[in-house]
Design brief:
The chain has 409 residues and is mainly β. The chain has an 18-stranded antiparallel β-barrel. This is DUF5723 domain-containing protein.
C-alpha cells in the first residue's frame, strides 16, 4: 500500500465521519519504552526505543461503525536526544467500515477495509464477534496493536462478509482483498496479489476454535509470448488456526499454527514452504486456585519476534509463572516471571541436528514483571536478565528494562 492510497482513504474516512455525524467513540491506546544495550554493538551503547499504538471505533449508527488503528515503532531516542527528530516506522494498521444487517436467525457483517483486518493469530476476531475475554498467549504480548503477533495478515484493500448466528456460537465468512508485495519465491519486483480467504470460528464452554485459509494469486507484470489477459505463474496458499481446549478458568491447552505464502508453481510437483513462514505455538496452561503456569514451545517468524515483548529468538521454550492479588474492590496486581531458553536464528527444521544448533549459540533469560491498574489503565513494568551475555563477556548487554501503559476510553 503506497502513501497516496493511505492519504486518500484516510481523507474518505474522516469525511464519512462528518457525514454520518458519529454519535459515539471508543478507543484503546498504549505505549512502551525499552531501555537496553544496542545488540549490534560489542561495547555498551544504550538505546531507548518507543512502541505505541492507537485503535478507535466510531459508531455512526447502531448498525454502522468504523475502525481506525495505527502504530509507531521508533529507533533510538537517545542518539540525537529525545527532543530531536528520530527515525521511526509509522504504520496505519486498519481503516474499515462495517455494516450490520440483522436477519431472523443471524447477523450479517459486511466490511470494506484497508490494511490488516481480522488477522488470524490474534483473538481480535473472537472478541469482536463473540464478545469474549482475551485468550491470547501472554508470551505474544505486543505494544504494536494488531500489527503484533499474527499468523498471517488479511492485508490489503478488500471486502469481507461474516455471518454470526444468534442461536449457535458459530461465525463464518470470507475475505477478498488485493495487496502489493515482493515476489516471495524469486525475490523479484513487486506484484499485485489477489487473495480469497475463508474463515470459521466457534466458542463453546471448553473449546474455542478459529480457522482461516486461502489462496493468493500474483498477477505477472510482464508476459513474454502470446498476448494474454491474465497470467498466473504460481499460486500462494496460507492457513492458520487458534485453538483453546478448556477456558480461561480451567487448566487448558492453547495452540496456534500457521503457514504463510507457501507456493505452487506450474512446473513443480510440490509446494515451496520457507521456514521463515511457519508459525507454531503450543502452550499448556496450568491453574491452581490463583496460581498460573504456562509452558510455551514456539517456532516463530523473525518478523513476528521483532514485535514481541517477551521473545528474543525464533525457536525456544518459555515458562511463565504468575499470580494475581487484589488490593481493592476494583484494583488488582499481577506479578510473575518468564524463564526462557531459546536458539538464535533457528527454526523447527533445524532440530534434526540438535548438536549443531547448540554449538551455534543459545540464550537463557529471566524476565520478572508486574502489572497493576493505574489511573484508568494498566501499567506494566519488567526487567530482563540475559544470562548468556555474561558468558560472552558482554555484561552491559545482559540487562534491559521496559515500562508500558495501556488504557481504554
Amino acid at each position: 500500500m503506497n502513501r497516496k492510497h493511505i492519504i486518500i482513504l484516510a481523507a474518505i474516512f474522516y469525511i464519512s465521519s462528518a457525514l454520518f455525524a458519529a454519535t459515539s467513540f471508543s478507543g484503546y491506546a498504549g505505549g512502551k519504552l525499552n531501555y537496553a544495550a544496542n545488540p549490534e554493538q560489542e561495547d555498551y551503547d544504550p538505546d531507548l526505543k518507543l512502541q505505541a499504538f492507537f485503535a478507535g471505533q466510531f459508531n455512526f449508527t447502531q448498525n454502522v461503525w468504523s475502525h481506525l488503528e495505527f502504530s509507531i515503532n521508533t529507533g533510538d531516542l537517545l542518539s540525537n536526544s529525545i527532543f530531536h527528530a528520530t527515525d521511526a516506522d509509522f504504520q496505519i494498521d486498519e481503516i474499515s467500515l462495517i455494516c450490520r444487517a440483522n436477519l431472523y436467525t443471524s447477523a450479517n457483517y459486511f466490511s470494506i477495509f484497508m490494511g490488516t483486518y481480522d488477522p488470524i493469530g490474534s483473538d481480535i476476531f473472537l472478541q469482536r464477534y463473540f464478545n469474549i475475554k482475551p485468550i491470547d498467549s501472554k508470551l505474544t504480548e505486543s505494544y504494536l496493536g494488531i500489527a503484533g503477533s499474527i499468523l498471517y495478515p488479511h492485508f490489503g484493500l478488500g471486502i469481507s462478509d461474516i455471518v454470526r448466528f444468534y442461536n449457535s456460537p458459530i461465525a463464518f465468512g470470507g475475505y477478498i482483498y488485493v495487496n502489493h508485495e515482493k515476489d516471495l519465491i524469486n525475490d523479484t519486483a513487486d506484484s499485485y496479489v489477489l487473495n480469497a480467504d475463508l474463515r470459521f470460528a466457534t466458542v463453546l464452554s471448553y473449546l474455542t476454535f478459529d480457522f482461516a485459509c486461502g489462496l493468493g494469486i500474483p498477477i505477472a507484470n510482464e508476459y513474454h509470448g502470446e498476448e494474454a489477459l491474465l497470467v498466473v505463474e504460481k499460486v500462494y496458499w496460507h492457513a492458520g488456526t487458534t485453538i483453546l481446549l478448556g477456558n480461561n478458568y480451567t487448566t487448558s491447552l492453547f495452540l496456534q499454527a500457521g503457514i504463510y505464502n507457501a507456493s505452487f508453481k506450474a512446473k513443480d510437483d510440490s509446494a515451496v514452504i520457507s521456514p521463515d513462514d511457519l508459525y507454531l505455538l503450543v502452550e499448556p496452561r496450568f491453574l491452581v486456585q490463583n496460581a498460573h503456569m504456562n509452558i510455551s514451545v514456539y517456532s516463530l517468524p523473525k518478523n513476528t519476534v521483532n514485535k514481541l515483548l517477551f521473545v528474543d529468538d525464533t525457536l525456544g521454550v518459555d515458562v511463565n509463572f504468575y499470580g494475581e492479588s487484589s488490593v481493592g474492590s476494583s484494583n488488582s496486581v499481577s506479578y510473575g516471571s518468564h524463564i526462557s531458553f531459546s536458539f538464535i536464528d533457528k527454526s523447527l527444521t533445524d532440530l534434526k541436528d540438535i548438536k549443531n544448533i547448540l554449538s551455534n549459540g543459545y540464550n537463557l533469560s529471566v524476565t520478572p514483571y508486574v502489572e497493576s491498574q493505574f489511573l484508568s489503565g494498566q501499567l506494566h513494568i519488567q526487567s530482563t536478565l540475559r544470562l548468556m551475555e555474561f558468558v560472552r563477556k558482554r555484561p552491559g548487554h545482559a540487562f534491559s528494562f521496559d515500562i508500558g501503559y495501556r488504557t481504554k476510553f
